[in-house]
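On clarity, I found the account of how folds are encoded harder to follow than it need be. What matters is that the chain and its backbone geometry are given together, residue for residue. For the editor and my fellow referees, an illustration may be useful. For illustration, here is how one protein appears when written out as sequence plus structure tokens:

___
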Amino acid sequence: FYDLGSGVGKIVAQAWLEFGVRESRGVELAAERHAAAVTAVAEILKRATGGTAGGNAGVFCGGRVELTCGDILDADLSQTTVVWCANVCFAPDFDARIARKLAQQPRLRAIAVIKDFAEGVEGFEYGGAGEFDMSWSHECRAQGLGGGGLVHFYFR
């Protein structure tokens, strides 16, 4: 599993703890968010594993959970089978560059994004969209603005 734009690392930790993925990785460009993610994920994993997660500098659980500070386009996705990207604020040209990178990953089987790729992803079928609760869902409902957010899926 790989979270492109992993922010404070919540989804990376959740994928590892709740869904039992073999490896869970995230890349975040903003150094402040990355630093917050390393601290938060260290604490989450420490509590969840009774202190056995170990790790520092963003590498935990013997390298099976990893957070890096860097550019999405530079991330090594060669072993990744599932990608999540909360790309709602990305410019269309950046989305297109991400889609091209994803199309080149031979092991990649599933992609989930908030904003669909305008041109799709070469070699992937669009699997539709579903509404899911997001971190902002409760506040939006309280203000009468609806519920969750759409997530678009692509499969190979």
